[in-house]
Amino acid sequence: MNHENNSDDSHTYCLLDENETYARSIVEVTHILPNSREHSRLKLLNVTLEPNLNFEANESGSEKIIRESFEVLSSSITESLLLTYETLPSKGLKIYGRTNSMIGMFDRIILSGTLNSTLEKCGLGIKQENKWLVIYKK
To answer: β-pairing, 92-96 with 41-49?
Structure first.
């Protein structure tokens, strides 16, 4: 991901296509308590997908668009989580649910338990805190 530093604790990243010619998504993160080893967190405040992947605004909402949107969103979250290791060291990543459908998606992720074993293998846990989906280091 390419990076732009907005201020000391606010950062914008672009997830580029495989040829690095255009942004598939723009990710806005805030580094909370960056100097605290115990309480530092990254907050993923917003992910903006490239216009043709915005299936909520796109009337067609085809299966292909939804699948691509999911892949770009997943990659954006994964890349944001990777930032917590070296670039913006922190104890985990909090993802804000901007819409009721996002919060519903968080509910389904937590209730299904599908990510638990994968995250456990990586030393991570997952939980929901109000409108936030939290992926934390154990």
So the answer is: parallel
